[in-house]
Amino acid sequence: MKPAIDPWTTAQIENYKELFDTFGIKPFTPFVKKLKDPHLLMKRGVVIGHRDFDRIYDAIKNKEDFAMLTGLMPSGPFHFGHKMVADQIIWYQKQGAEVFITVADIEAYAVRNIPLEKCRETAINEYIANYIALGLKPKKAHIYFQSDYKKEYYRLKSMISKRATLNEFKAIYGDDISPAKINAVLHQVADILHPQLPEFGGKRPVIVPVGVDQDPHIRLTRDIASRASEFDFILPSSTYHRFQTGIRGGKMSSSKPESFIALNENPEIAVKKLKTALTGGRDTVEEQKKLGGTPENCVIYEFYLYHLIPDDKELKKVYENCRAGKLLCGENKARAVELLEKFLKEHQKKLEKARNQVDKYITS
User: Fold this and answer.
1) Is 58 part of a structural domain of the chain?
2) The predicted structure's pLDDT at residue 12
3) CA-CA distance, 73 to 359, in Å (whole number)?
4) Residue 2: pLDDT over 60
């Protein structure tokens, strides 16, 4: 049996609403107006769903203690699809969250056959350094490796294993579930729940921002938390964002170098990649002027939406001009190339400095 959502593949999600209806994920839209300072990914409809975000909203509004947990898979370069998650991490930290970031090196080793030494090198040089360069602060930030953490974390992982069954794993993840995957999943459950242990801050709401492909982990964690009465956990909350489209379509993925632009990529190479990106233009200039473009299907517009144009009014103008046929694809790509090159050059200067600060962030 193949599950409806598989957290170990790179398939593009075609119908988010159908998945949300199937698995009980609620629209995020109501919180956009309620939040005092929503992240632009929230305002722009990139963060589209949630489970129990009400708890996190209340914690932010009332300046109460809460935590944010996310994980990184050290399997390849840090690209713009990863930046989307990093931007959310930094936003939650600014809202007062205590930040926990797990390096899923055990999962990478067991499921993807990546040596632990390589996992550590990739996590430090690609991910952690980029988080710092993008604005993550050391105060109330804990980055740890699944292979090298505190004993209470491993004890939790062992204890929660009795709260799940093999049939449950098969129902959620499919028949090809293996011992290595089960072990990886139990690590993820412990990752999400451990910020509520007394040794890590105590009982409080925890938010986990993820792509919808990771919802199987969230559902299992919430089920296990509800059964683990000895810990009295608050069920973890979650938000769900759209995937960023790859340069030539499909999902942006670390396993497909042609699909992404890395944040440490040579700007000249990055520019060449972006110039090949799919657009929402028509077959001819005349058709585009007459019928207008479709920015909803344009990778260039998506880069603006997610990363390159922070000003909402400017983004709206780009959208309207494209739809009206006033903005042609060549002009649009030229503007995107300019913004991308500027961003990468500035970011890479920060990245060099960030590499010397990594030790401040790693917890063992």
Assistant:
1) yes
2) 61
3) 19
4) no
Does position 285 have pLDDT exceeding 70, yes or no? yes
Q: Residue 345 pLDDT > 80, yes or no?
A: yes
pLDDT score of 140 more than 90 = yes
Helical residues (DSSP H) of the chain, grouped into ranges: 16-23, 29-34, 40-43, 53-61, 80-94, 105-112, 116-122, 129-134, 151-160, 166-173, 179-193, 215-227, 267-275, 285-291, 299-303, 312-323, 329-354
The CA distance from 248 to 38, in Å, is 30
Token pair for 92: 């939650």
Residue 252, domain member (yes or no): no
Residue 23 to residues 3, 51, 198, 221, 227, Cα–Cα distance (Å)? 12, 10, 31, 14, 20
Pairwise CA distance, residues 355 & 350, whole Å: 9
Range of the domain at 231: 16-246
Q: What are phi and psi of 294, to 5 degrees?
A: -125, 90
Model pTM score: 0.93
Distance of alpha carbon 314 from the chain centroid: 25
Distance CA 269, CA 347 (A): 16
Residue 357 lies in a domain: no
Residues 172, 275 within the same domain = no
pLDDT of residue 280: 83
Same domain, 143 and 261: no
